[in-house]
Protein 1
Amino acid sequence: MTSPTHLYLRLAAEQKSAEVTDWSARISWVVGLLVLIAFVYWLMRQGWKWRGSLQSGLPELATTPEGFGDGEQPLTLTGRYHASTTAGQWLDRIVAHGLGTRSRVELALTDRGLDVRRPGATDFFVPAAALRGARLDKGIAGKVLPEGGLLIITWAHGDKLIDSGFRSDRSAEHPAWVEAIERLTRTTEGTAR
């Protein structure tokens, strides 16, 4: 039989000290990871630029006409602009002319059209004749919300139909916008005939 002192001495002799950290290997891994992250970010940026060059044939966006809203009480909305996509293809983001940039938004709708004011991004105007409709949906390129959480406005720009996604600060306003845009498109279609 072994005594407790003898057992203690034998266990103490078998213990080893902890390995010393190899700082050069650890730093190499961290630098390698940072280079990989920077490379992936660069690839994403190149993809964004490439998409913009593919969409360079899209005409310039219209600007708000002089006297827009004079004498009329516009329907207004404040919230977020999420993206514009090719109509019916909710993942085909349009990045040309700043349409791919998320931002705050202030919308104003009158009989002349839709004024889209985006602080920090390109403002644009959609004439009433270019509006094609509106609906409530749950997703658009890079943003998915509960059913009916997004106001999608469809409009024509050049020969392309575009869906633009907006979310009001007060989502209860969305149905009134859908109704107003549908009414405006029926009116402009009736006068065009």
Protein 2
Amino acid sequence: MEIRYIKRFLLFVLFCITPKLWGQQKISGKVITGDELDLVPVLVVNISGNKSSLSDMSGNFEIEAKENDEIRFVKEGYYRVDKKMTKEEINTPFNIILKKIEIQIPEVKIKYKPTGNLAKDNQHYNESRKLQALKSDMDDYMRSPLNQPLPNNTVSKTFTGHDFNAGQVNLFGVFNAVKKLAQPKVTKANYNETQDFLRRVRNEVNLNFLKKYGMDDEQIDAFLLYADKTRLLAKRYRKDFSINVVEYELKVAFAEYSKTHKLEGTQEQYIH
């Protein structure tokens, strides 16, 4: 009897767990920007599942998702892309194309059209002698010292009426003050603080993307010092440490670092 109940219990547990295992799985693909030299990683966010990841230096990404989840692709300077997962795309890698945001220059309108007559055109563009003299006099007046004290720029209490704010607490000001107190103040990191921050980066952030290019521990330490110097990592994030943010900053720094340092795998990547 006991064995029968145990078997039924195990089947019930398996029945409850199996849908969850099947429902959530990893999707993969590649982000294409159209610019082969633009290797800055793209932020991939599962809006429905509240998960996020970063694409690698080649644009490849992987994130947990299930059917009908909304996946968002975000990159600075590019239009955001939102995609709803279908059943077919769950098991098949797919490409995402990001389009660059166009920067529009405002149109400059020229009100006066030159006639070719120098005397007439100079009369339009050059200031009159009276206007030049007036500007010169105003400039001399503004630079001259004050001869009389300035009046008190206040309104008499007789005409101001009752001040309904007197004795009241400025809730908006209090809210801003509390918000400022809650955020850690950004200050320059000393030597010990910088070393502690870099040690935490080595222990908590996934640095496998550096090892993929053949970097040993000494080279990784040299790169971390470079990233801290160029991106001010210890100064900005030692008090507010976020693994995803720090990893993103490291990949941004690596995109520049790889242009001036020869690493295994980078040559092949640039050729393709």
Protein 3
Amino acid sequence: MDIEIFPYRVLGSDTTEKLLNDLESLEDVKRTVIQGPRFPKGEATLPPQYQERRVITVNGEKVVLQVKTARIFLEITLESTIDEVEKICEKHIPFGFDINQDRAHYIRKQKTVTDRIKYGNKDIPDELIGMTDQYSKFDDHVNIIKKDD
């Protein structure tokens, strides 16, 4: 099952980093996708204290944050995990949020035409399905963070 975390405000880099680390620490979380507007191109000219595009560490791996976090999609298997997710969100998102589970799937699970355009007819791992953007380079937009087994 997939759930959507919809904060009432766009999250900053620090909040995103803390939230993702806590969410990724849950055993039942299979995939996490963040979505939001891209950082403006002129952000590099801002003083460092105002720059949000930066390297964050999630589950011990360095990730370049390239979007403002407006939504977070989680793939989970147990409904009881939603309670744990809600507690984590209450800790990091004090201004409010919604957890939606209205749709059966927020993250695509089957290979589509877009995936075929991007990868060809190659077999791709399940965790990469639904992570394509036909207009971008794969390495620029997807980071796979391995969990400790």
